[in-house]
Design a protein that fits this description.
By secondary structure, the chain is mainly beta. It is 10% helix and 41% strand.
Length: 383
């Protein structure tokens, strides 16, 4: 090869090498999916991050497993973002009688995420709800309701929109200033649930959410979506291994003075409707949990065309009353629906119970001051 040709080849090689740059390492530190060895996993649900006072930001993941699964020796197999590592390692056998913490580190080593994996083989473990137990959430600002068994052990907790309402005014620290709280005005001199429809102030109006109805439901409230897509923020339902037949209990209700519709063109986003009366809502929905849609939300929980819904119990004769009034709501099967006993055994059905002080509260409409009391609720079901 002539000297000129050799020099040209060398120059081309140098230029080609200079154009090749090392690919940047991945900065993501995510758990993308979770599996369990054996046929035990029903589904898993990843929730939005929560801020823990002692541990900082934690990302919860709930694994729903079949009944009779031995949770003391489970080895979750984790799929991570490319290049990421996790401690403890994927496939490590752990005792999930208590939640376990996993630390994921990105490929570039600069980012970490802390995940909390919790395992449960049931959603409902009690069927009588008297609303006697609350603890404080949001740094002591609002009430979180929970239920206990005869030994005083917590069996389930309720969700509400209180965390979202807290975003509208950081100065509120009194639980009784929130839409959902415990009252001492129970049916027989005991505690009860009290739900009140409130205005959300300038911040709520600025995001077209001028009204907040008091609510309580089984499921999760996704705080990350509260101000951007409130209907998606309510995740309704937990696993239920029986066939519900009736929801019953007692209520009192007083409607607020003025009903408001949402008006995005108004300064406060409220349009008064003087001739319209507010009313409350009580309902329960039994539905199939699928891989594509494991949990229903505010956009589809009562949709007539939702094929996942099996049966619904809903109050039809709601009225204002100063006296404790009994409600008995039978679960009515949707047309053509049956309960698959195999899926029921595998834990593939969910149930939610919902109480709201304004029936249109999920659309940010209602009468401020509408007040609903609930007490002595019971859920009847078949084995």
């Amino acid at each position: 090869m002539k000297m000129k040709e050799w020099m040209a080849c060398l120059l081309l090689a140098v230029l080609a090498t200079a154009c090749i740059q090392e690919e940047a390492l991945n900065t993501e530190a995510d758990i993308e999916s979770v599996e369990l060895p054996g046929d035990v996993l029903v589904r898993y649900v990843q929730l939005d991050a929560i801020n823990n006072e002692t541990e900082g930001k934690v990302y919860p993941i709930v694994l729903y497993v079949k009944k009779d699964t031995d949770v003391s020796k489970l080895a979750p197999e984790l799929t991570l973002t490319p290049g990421a590592t996790v401690v403890p390692e994927s496939g490590t056998v752990l005792d999930f009688n208590t939640p376990q913490t996993y630390i994921v580190t990105s490929e570039d080593g600069q980012w970490q995420r802390k995940y909390r994996l919790e395992v449960t083989n049931t959603g409902f473990t009690c069927s009588n709800y008297n609303f006697e137990n609350v603890r404080l959430g949001g740094d002591g600002k609002y009430h979180i309701f929970y239920e206990t068994d005869q030994m005083g052990v917590e069996t389930m907790s309720w969700a509400s929109g209180n965390p979202g309402y807290a975003l509208t005014d950081y100065t509120i620290k009194d639980p009784e200033k929130f839409p959902t709280y415990q009252s001492a005005e129970g049916k027989d001199g005991t505690k009860c649930l009290k739900l009140v429809t409130l205005k959300t102030g300038s911040l709520g109006s600025s995001v077209n959410m001028p009204i907040a109805a008091g609510n309580l439901f089984n499921g999760e409230f996704n705080l990350g979506s509260a101000l951007t897509n409130a209907l998606k923020a309510t995740k309704f339902g937990t696993q239920f291994d029986y066939i519900p037949t009736t929801l019953r209990g007692y209520y009192k209700f007083k409607a607020g003075e003025t009903f408001y519709e949402l008006d995005k063109n108004a300064e406060d986003k409220l349009k008064p409707v003087p001739d319209r009366k507010d009313i409350f809502d009580i309902y329960a929905v039994f539905y199939e949990s699928t891989t594509e849609c494991p949990v229903l939300d505010g956009t589809n929980i009562l949709a007539e065309d939702n094929e996942q819904i099996v049966s619904v119990a809903r109050i039809e004769n709601a009225k204002e009353t100063d006296e404790w009034t009994e409600f008995i709501l039978p679960f009515r099967m949707r047309d053509g629906k049956t309960v698959d006993p195999v899926k029921l055994e595998e834990g593939k059905y969910n149930l939610t119970i919902v109480f709201a002080s304004s029936i249109r509260g999920n659309y940010f409409e209602g009468a401020p001051g509408s007040t609903l009391y609930i007490d002595e609720v019971a859920l009847d079901y078949e084995e």
